[in-house]
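Record format v2
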Amino acid sequence: MHNVLIIDDSDINLALVKALVLKLGDCSPTLFDHPLAALEWCRSNVPDLVIVDYMMPDMDGLRFISAFRALHGRNEIPVLMITANDQRDIRYDALLGGANDFLTKPIDRVEFSARVRNMLSLRTGQKYLADRAEHLSSLVDERTAEIREREKELIFRISRAAEFRDPETGAHIQRMAHYSQIIALGLDLSIAQQKLILEAAPMHDVGKIGIPDYILLKPGKLTPEEFEVMKGHSRLGHELLKDSRSEIMKAGAEVAISHHEKYDGTGYPYGLKGHQIPLFGRIVAVADVFDALTSERPYKRAWSLDDACRFLEDGRGKHFDPMCVEAFLAGWEHVLDIRQRFRDEEMPQI
Amino acid sequence: MAGAFVLDKASILDRLGGDEKIFAMMVDMFVQDVDSNCAALATALASGDPAVLRREAHTVKGLLATFSDDIGAENASLVEQRARDGLVADQAEAVAGLQQRLREIAAVLSAG
């Protein structure tokens, strides 16, 4: 159903145009005998066609078209202006001023029907193109979301591959990723950044995939030489991820290279201090250590939550960024919830 | 105003695609509105405002043309053009002629 807006200060013309529009079928006319009232209506309604008289009180048809075109989203809507036969100059002005076509008085039904149908066909085409553009846009969004989901899954599985060669569990990477997100929230990072760290944090130890088993799986304490090799996992992880075009992979590379740096400069691989350490690295450091401490492993018992918190507090300004520790403790209720959701024997999806 | 109005129903219907219903509706409206249209012309003349007289004359021109009254529409057009040139006071006779024409047409249309 086409909504046809008709504006004419003459009742008889208004009735005539309405009757002719109804004769076309599939049209719903909306009538105004005053252009200002019609313009007000147009602020909250979008007609499919405007038929407007030229000479009207307060605002002539040319000024109406100009004001109508200035409204948001009304630039493409077809406009027909009604003029008298002897108003050629006005017709030129109308066409130059935004009218798509004109009708002459006295109105001839054949001419009227042909011009109105043409304008409504134009409008139908416009709507079809707009709908198609919207449809295509939603398809692109859908496909992009699918690709992003696959990317997330791939990242999770890569991270798991590294963890399989390590005493850590799949639940560990889920917990530490969510702890990282809690810290990001506490630091007032944007929603996008919170999401990014949630997705990138699982890759913090992906470089362990390149560490020989005799070191990675060694039950006892590592020798200084072995520990040097072990420390190489930060660089390996970074090398693996750094050249990706994916935002998540790039963030993962940053996390991999920086999560063993310490706030006081005693960490590795570069011995960076304070804010020289990338923020994501400072965040993941807190999340990773807390979860490692509070998790039971074949070679150690789990620390109590109080002891682990004390360790974090004692490490403020030394191992950890004080702001990150504060943000983590501020989200304590969420931390407990994450511990419940991701237990070592269970592994819900991210 | 020269020449009595003769209803050319065939030409009007031709423009309306032969639609008798629309024709009947227009006749009813014309007859119903004739007094107010005449009054609007009088008010415009009395106002001394050429823009108002121009607009009313334009409206009457359209009405007369709709009923295929070429002579009446031409006279209304003259009033409109003179008003566009700023002339009002000396158009009393022409305006009276338009009013008379409107009533004449209404009478013819009413007679059926």
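Residues 76 and 126 of chain A are 8 Å apart (CA to CA).
Strands of chain A lie at 2-7, 27-32, 49-53, 79-84, 101-105.
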